[in-house]
Write a structure and sequence with these properties.
By secondary structure, this protein is α/β, with parallel strands linked by helices. The protein is built from 10 helices and 8 strands. It has a 5-stranded mixed beta sheet with strand order 6-5-4-7-8, sandwiched between helices. It has a 3-stranded antiparallel beta sheet with strand order 1-2-3, with no helix packed on it. β2 and β3 form a beta hairpin.
């Protein structure tokens, strides 16, 4: 934190850093394509050819923000430094913010930036399953449970270890919904392992190699989709431990994005790399104003 304060002590320092992330090969005017520009005293960039002005923050999650940029950088560092996740209340206390809503909105914008635009789909051997997230309800458990949110889970198999994961909120477990989630998150020609649920039928017609793992199969009877089940267990424990199980149904996908971002970078030993990646994706993510996030 001391190094962060020294390097990004002013809004100009933050803008210069974001400028390098947004245009790593040099500035290019969005109107005329010219690469020659001036930096104005108000922080805007002036194109030498068309005289158009552009802000480094325009078209990013920082667009029209009222929170100072150094505070945004402190928030990004705090989020990346905490390995178990961050709640809005803890962020408010850490940054001494006056409003809980400000901390919550800041976190929601950062969570949306944790999904890299055009990110690669999973490849190789993949385990898929569904998780049911929500509080305790009387009645049936698992598929068909009432009052819970359904999360599609896909995990790369890397020998005895796990690779990347993808988590997607889905409305039901029908064949059409599950196939759409698989096409969105998994590369063609991948090998998919699932249970015998009928919603996964017909995956071979979509170009996948589909293998059903059933409890009646002798060699796999003791380990039915173990990697998916481990991820689901960690997800539920993370929601319960960090947010006390209180995650709004309308914003669950944003929390899943944060869990995926952290899990896929769990082996990184440098918090600075996570900060760099989050800042890089923040300038590549389209802005979302308060009304869009609240009414999501």
């Amino acid at each position: 934190m001391i190094e962060l304060e020294q390097r990004f002590s002013s809004p100009d320092d933050c803008r210069d850093y974001l400028f390098g992330l947004r245009w790593p090969n040099g500035y290019v005017c969005s109107q005329c394509g010219n690469s020659e520009s001036w930096k104005m005293s108000n922080g805007l960039i002036l194109c030498k050819r068309c005289r158009g002005q552009q802000s480094v923050l325009a078209g990013t999650i920082f667009h029209r923000t009222h929170m100072p940029l150094p505070m945004w950088f402190r928030a990004m560092w705090y989020v990346c430094a905490q390995k178990n996740g961050v709640s809005a209340l803890s962020l408010q206390r850490a940054l001494n913010l006056k409003s809980y809503n400000t901390a919550w909105l800041c976190l929601q914008k950062l969570r949306r930036a944790m999904v890299r635009p055009g990110r690669d789909r999973l490849s190789g051997e993949i385990e898929v399953d569904e998780a049911y997230v929500g509080g305790k309800h009387v009645g049936k458990r698992g598929r068909g449970a009432f009052g819970k949110q359904i999360v599609f889970v896909s995990v790369e198999k890397k020998a005895e270890a796990m690779g990347r994961i993808r988590l997607v909120c889905i409305p039901d477990v029908s064949c059409v919904t599950l196939r759409s989630a698989i096409l969105e998150t998994i590369e063609d020609n991948a090998t998919i392992y699932s249970d015998g649920w009928s919603g996964y039928a017909g995956l071979s017609k979509s170009g996948y190699t589909h293998k059903i793992v059933d409890k009646s199969t002798q060699e796999l009877s003791e380990e039915l989709l173990p990697k998916c089940h481990l991820v689901i267990s960690l997800l539920k424990r993370w929601i319960l431990g960090t947010f006390q199980g209180c995650v709004g149904a309308g914003h669950l996908q944003d929390y899943l994005n944060e869990f995926t971002f952290r899990f896929n970078r769990r082996s990184s030993r440098s918090r600075g790399k996570l900060f760099y990646r989050l800042a890089e994706q923040s300038v590549a993510t389209q802005p979302n104003d308060r009304s869009k996030i609240i009414n999501h």
